[in-house]
Amino acid sequence: MNFKDGLLLFLTVVFGIMYVNVGIQHFTDTSWFEPIVPSILGNPSFWVYLTGVIEIGIGVGLIVPAWRRYAGIGSAGFLVIVYWANLNMWVNDIAIGGKTYADVWHVLRLLAQTGMIALSLLISRQTIPVDLKEP
Q1: Tens digit of each residue's pLDDT (9 = 90 or more) over 52-109
Q2: Within-domain flag for 31
Q3: Own/partner long-range contacts of 38-42 (Cβ < 8 Å, ≥24 apart)
């Protein structure tokens, strides 16, 4: 495996673990996520639980080589959709975890979200060798 493939494999697994971790947090601390769910959707708890399940699924999919391509595509789409909640928090100055954030933090979040979408698309397009031995 060359350096580029190894780095992408490492980033993919770390990204997957991060997804699983955040997904679990959607079940262990729902009240932290609920305030940013756009009110038009109704029942914030439902949306927090649903996105938690999706995040855990995407995370596992990124870790399992056979599912990686589809998880990368799903991750990119999911990140575009859930940005609505982050935008809602920014535009309406909604506190999360008891704290509101300055515009600079929201811009950084947008840049991070864009980076995660790009990584997701890169993962979906790459064939990362499962066999770690050199050919």
Answers
A1: 999 999 999 999 999 999 999 999 999 999 999 999 999 999 999 889 999 999 999 9
A2: yes
A3: 38/84, 38/85, 38/88
